[in-house]
Every structure is written in structure tokens, then in C-alpha cells.
Specification:
Blueprint (H helix, E strand, L loop, with lengths): L3 E5 L14 E2 L2 E2 H10 L6 E6 L2 H9 L3 E4 L13
Parallel strand pairs: 1-4, 4-5
Antiparallel strand pairs: 2-3
Keywords: Nucleotidyltransferase, Transferase
InterPro entries: Cytidylyl_trans, Nucleotide-diphossugar_trans
GO cellular component, one term: cytosol
């Protein structure tokens, strides 16, 4: 059976705008999350779901896969439903 991990991310958070791209130890936070998820043995694929081109560019720069979603989603977790 194939199981994909979908990581929702957006720049327009009310509490922490821009949080996915905050640099930690030289990498954007979203890349730390993606790399840790890739290390999980239960997933056949790991993708980031976002509506933001900045996140798309950051993830793809490190070889990750992105699914572009609608800006109409109110919460990031709506992107995985």
C-alpha cells in the first residue's frame, strides 16, 4: 500500500506570518519539516501543499515536491482534505 504524507503550509498565518520560510540553522523551517517527514519509513511520498509561490520555490530548490492549492482555503490544514 502506498501512503503519501502531505504537509500543509502557507505564508498568511494570522499568528506567525511567513513562518514556513523562517530560517533555522541555514534552512527554511518548511525544509526541516519536509526532511524529517522523508525520514519516516511509512510514507511512499512526501509533498508540500501550498498556495504560495515563495514556499513552492523554497521546497523545489531542495528537491521537494509541491502541490499548488487554492488561496481560498482558510486554514493550512484545509489543503489536505
Amino acid at each position: 500500500m502506498k501512503i503519501a504524507a502531505v504537509i500543509p503550509a502557507r505564508m498568511a498565518s494570522r499568528r506567525h506570518p511567513g513562518k514556513p520560510l523562517i530560517e533555522i540553522e541555514g534552512l527554511p523551517m518548511i525544509e526541516h519539516v519536509r526532511r524529517r517527514t522523508v525520514l519516516c519509513s511509512g510514507f511512499s511520498d512526501v509533498v508540500v501543499a501550498t498556495c504560495d509561490a515563495e514556499i513552492q520555490e523554497a521546497v523545489e530548490a531542495f528537491g521537494g515536491t509541491v502541490i499548488m492549492t487554492s488561496k481560498e482555503h482558510i486554514m493550512a490544514s484545509d489543503r489536505v482534505a
